[in-house]
Amino acid sequence: MSRFFLEVLDFKYPKAQLFEYQASIKDWAPNVHYSKKGIDTAADSKWFDYYPDQDNNHLIKEVTENINIKLDGGAYKFVKTLAGGILPFHIDPQRECVLMLPLTDNNAGLQWKIGNTIVCTHIYKGPAVINAKILHGVPTNDKDRLFLQATIPCTWNYLINNYQHIFNI
Prior knowledge:
Jelly Rolls; 6-stranded antiparallel sheet; alpha+beta
């Protein structure tokens, strides 16, 4: 098992419907954590977030039904990086395990760094959980990159040992 990502290719989600839903979103915003530090990710990186209303969204409920661990409120967000933008290298401040559901194909690879060295690159073939407590980012991106993310409230070790139960696979 990798300490950087875990593919969960058998995890089912309504990809086409989620893609259609995100296309209707009008109020994408810069990443809130960077904004608090005075960085506008929309202008600087072409990186946007959107937090859906989880309680009233049938698509989000459909994804949640395939997860056997209680998700906290605010667990989901759509993430969009436009062509030519980047996902700056960062460590997520409040989450360790993040389920990444790609809504676009052939996405630029997510990379993890230790110091100044790239130690792992992951090209998404489908759903995967990433370890967000290791420095990661997408330094080059030549096409729009869209995901639905879900915070899985557990440690990386717990996830690795229990992922088949957590994701109904």
